[in-house]
Amino acid sequence: MNTTHPAVTDLRTETMTLNMGPSHPGTHGVLRLLLEVDGETVVSAQPILGYLHSGKEKIAEHRTYHQFIPYTDRLDYVAPLSNNVAYVLAVEKLLGIEATPRAQYIRVLCCELARISAHLLWLGTMAVDLGAVTIIFYAFREREKLNRLFEDLTGVRMNTSYTRVGGLAWDLPEGFESRVRAFLDEFPSQLKEMDGLLTRNRIWYDRCRGVGVISREDAIAYGLTGPSLRAAGVAWDLRKARPYSSYEHFEFDVPVEEAGDSYARYLVRMEEMRQARRIALQAIERMPGGPISVPDPKITPPPKRRILCSMEELIQDFEIVVFGHRAPKGEVYHSIEAPKGELGFYIISEGGGKPYRLKIRSPSFCNLSAMSKMVEGRLLSDVVTVISSLDPVMGEVDR
User: Fold this and answer.
1) Which run of H or of E encompasses 362?
2) How far apart are CA 134 and CA 312, in angstroms?
């Protein structure tokens, strides 16, 4: 009787195909991952997009430059103020104008508060995904304070549409700067508390360290930007490399880590919140006076009280609202350092008040391209960790 058994290494098993999403809580939106797994090990992972497609780039061809501003709110919808600034800067570059110093500083303040808000939401949701449920209550408590500030400034908590071509919708409300300062003064102690609960927590460390590793070279090749790129050892930040909106006047550090894993991405974002607070404080302390919009009647509509009393101002407002800002022929690209990475707008103009073509360079879309590289060979449970550490928002992925 032959009692020889095949070696364990000679045994063959079949892989299984799993659909993770598009309605899975760990995918942070309507993202579908087509996973091929061998037991608990991921063989391949293919992100499948399009479940939230809204055709924003095509819509832009049928809206004036001013009318398209609200659509930018719906990209990274956890940081709409940042989206508004990115789009308006591209339009202003096309028109050959520059916002006033006060408008630029207010935009910087808005962008950095939006960065803190977006990172707080990421921190709370990633912690929940990995089982640290308590953190979301700490993070959302601070984010609620920011949402109240955004409501004071813009009238709404989300979908702010606050920025305008050539400036802002209106100036800072009375007492706003003191309320922002009060938040910024107490924020470090709250962030320290969250840091203390997670950073040296052994379970958190083991779930993140060495998970979703990407090298410096691969991060560049895949087009990663933002915290995902800086966590891989690339010190690239548009606020430093290509300053816009007066960022060259601000002092701050660009946090960089070398490991390129989920833990490194966590550390980078935590430090970015500290640096964002530092920038916001400088914006308040150095806030210049003066107008918030360029004094050009072809760019800035007149105040409502004058529209109702003067035919010239009424005609001026009518032309801007109906026909839009008359842009010259040409093409421009402008990007900013958004919370997720490089958010850019490429505009082709054939003249007139609407873009001929508009292309959005969204960081979440590019960052997701490296998803398969990061999870292959890892356990199925690590997929959730990697998705959370990339912090995608599907509104700007499917756009």
Assistant:
1) none
2) 59
Per-residue 3-state assignment (H helix, E strand, C coil) for 116-162 = HHHHHHHHHHHHHHCCCCHHHHHHHHHHHHHHHHHHHHHCCCCCCCC
Q: Which two tokens stand for residue 339?
A: 């919370």
Closest CA relative to residue 270, chosen from 84, 130, 126: 126
Amino acid letter for position 45: A
Backbone angles phi and psi of 392, in degrees to 5: -80, 150
Q: What residues pair up with 44 in beta bridges, in sequence order?
A: 36
Which stretches within the chain are classed as H helix?
A: 56-59, 69-73, 80-95, 101-129, 134-154, 176-198, 202-208, 216-221, 227-230, 238-241, 262-285, 304-307, 311-323, 363-368, 371-375, 380-390, 394-398
Q: For 182-223, what is each residue's pLDDT tens digit? A: 999 999 999 999 999 999 999 999 999 999 999 999 999 999
Instruction: Give the length of the chain.
Output: 399
Distance separating the N- and C-terminal Cα atoms of the chain: 67
The pTM of the whole model exceeds 0.85: yes
Neighbour count for residue 30 (Cβ, 10 Å):
18
Q: Under a CB-based contact definition with an 8 Å cutoff, are residues 383 and 371 in contact?
A: no
